[in-house]
Amino acid sequence: MKIPSSMITGLILTCIGSLIVIIGAYLAYQCFQTYAPILPRAKSLSEALTNTTYELVNLVLKLGFLGVMIWGGSVLLKYGTHIIIEVEKIERA
Prior knowledge:
The chain is mostly helical. The protein has one domain (5-92). The protein has helices at 5-34, 45-92.
């Protein structure tokens, strides 16, 4: 029995999406485990606010990138499984 090319495409998308989601979740967990803010001693209130703001922006950028990565992987996973389901419906008909 020959496997349709659309089924192979669906399987590839599902595997890639799963891999991206797993890697993104692992990286997020690793960042959570190793996060230690670097806040040097400030001489004034403005320096303290600047240092804290820099650290927060750095953290938000990392989390944003991981969020976009996991979102993109979940989209690939969604369409990969959708293709597989549709191919199986067509084969049963």
